[in-house]
User: Fold Arginine--tRNA ligase from Putridiphycobacter roseus.
Amino acid sequence: MSLEKILLGTVQSGVQALYNQTFNENLIQFQKTKKEFDGDITLVTFPIVKFSKEAPHITGEKLGAFLLENSDLVSAYNVVKGFLNLSIVDTFWVDQLNTISETVNYGFSPSNGKLYMVEYSSPNTNKPLHLGHLRNNFLGYSVAEILKANGFEVVKTQIVNDRGIHICKSMLAWEQFGNGETPESTGLKGDKLVGKYYVRFDQELKKETKALVNAWVAETNDDQNLDEAILKLISAYQNNDESAQAGIFDKLSELAKNQTAIMKSAQDMLLKWEQKDPAVYKLWSTLNGWVYDGFESTYQAMGVDFDKLYYESETYLTGKDLVEDGLKKGIFFQKDDGSIWIDLTDDGLDEKLVLRGDGTAVYMTQDMGTASQRFLDYPKLNGITYTVGNEQDYHFKVLFLILKKLGYAWAENCFHLSYGMVDLPTGKMKSREGTVVDADDLMQEVVDKAKAGSQERGHLEGMSDTDKNNLYQTIGMGGLKYYLLKVDPKKRMLFNPEESVDLNGNTGPFIQYAFARINSLLKSDFKVKPVLKTVELHDSEREIIKLLIDFPQVIKEAGTELSPALIANYTYELVKLYNSFYQSVSIFKESDDEKINLRLNLSKNVGDTIKKSMHLLGINVPNQM
RNA sequence: GGGCCAGUAGCUCAGCUGGAUAGAGCACCUCCCUUCUAAGGAGGCGGUCAAAGGUUCGAAUCCUUUCUGGCUCACCA
Assistant:
């Protein structure tokens, strides 16, 4: 039973005895005593004043005296305004520490029999993974681990975005300009090679677009086949001054894009792909194969994995049945051009397209299909969490609403783990402007930095080269993951390259270092036993025990909030307290064996908690660093 | 224009289901390695919690309005 629960009963009988009142326990508010005051736990007496009809400090005094008299736990009290600060006997804290030590899997919940799916990553197969994907992957992986710690069985999954016009763009550019290049012939990772041709396509497209628009606006242009909107713009361009021309040129460029030869070829290729043209299919599977090899090595470096993969090329058609079904049920409606929509205006949203006029699937169609497929594949499935950026908030709001309207009870248990964009000090990442931070490059950089830092400090005598390299990996990746996970997922965050490889302060390596020091302590021959109740606690020891008591609650909250940041912040607090303790008391210079035992016992529990917390973030901890 | 999200120290972030004098890290300035790993610790400097009203014994936290920034409202994904 928690301290608050135990005290609650005594407070209630106190109120009964003093004021002959019984009242709702919600009115009894406990909070942690702030560190500038004496005490361990504080009762806020303002709400009780309503019944006592006294000044808050009078009621505090009376209740304090009652508690001191009637509770074995309370050893002292003091009153500051409306706050009754209670000191709790050390035996209670020692007892708690022993309980924590004896609890198997302390902080983790037993299985609740529920199956949950966490979707994350879900990249396009036309370009390499970047910094944004790192936040996504680390978040998704961590949330999956946190849900497991809360008793769920979890299937980690992704939907691989392997089809569509953007995929055809890189295919086409490779075909036209690639000269048969392969990962082997160039030494490039597959995803990098394909990404290179995606960029190449864009360059060609820009070049052709510009040429086309220049031809349109030239005096000699007599192409009468252009549609009216374009002709209007051309005439506007020709009859305006230079300052207005730039804007018109941009508008024309937008229209011209789709009329360039290269874009038409790409669209043509998509059509052929949908018709399963053998040559196009072969090209598609070859390039995607390269990309998957590249991704595989990136995922490995990230330390993330998946239990089940879904491919858009396999699921994009399945949503159509749902649309047909919904149309019959009158949930959707058809417009004259054949396109199918849902009217969500009653729910405060818009009309939303669910199937194109030509009968092809849109994003929404596919996501409906994929969701339903997943519940078919896993009949026990309770819900899905989608780790997707917050620019898709509206999409998921609509998706879940549609699924609900289609009558799926499980739609209630689908959540969008919406996370904010990662900005750079220079602003937004833009692939077109080449400001994207590549995932592989960044991971390599942080590992290199960790290596340099470790070598400078030189605590690694007697370690093999393999172990050293693993350590650099652990520290570098630990720093990067911690950096991206310590911020509330919902919030947009700034990625500062300098800070991300920092090893001091609120960082992954700071926490790893505390673990390594604890590990070093525990290597002694001293045999750790349960702590005797008679031991007197140092302030820093008591504070650590108090924080350890919170661990299970933190894991629960991280689970309901889907927020690894809560775990990160908790661990940081714990490590700060531990470091302070480590500095202020000596362990092996202590003459009293019982105190040595207490301190090692405490250290071991802190170490275990650090390890478990970091595990929930996908971060490893080193025994030595 | 409608909807959603955010605005806290020079910078990056906690705190937000209302409670005491708003906290960390970085940066800057002092100290501490003949104690177990100094990737550490102790301290200092630094705030109109975007602004104005309101509710309350009490507001960074809840409500209203305004300002600023972002995302979104595609027969793109």
Observations:
- The two ends of chain A are 39 Å apart (CA to CA).
- The domain at 439-616 of chain A is CATH 1.10.730.10 (Isoleucyl-tRNA Synthetase; Domain 1).
- Residues 190-217 of chain A form the longest helix (28 residues).
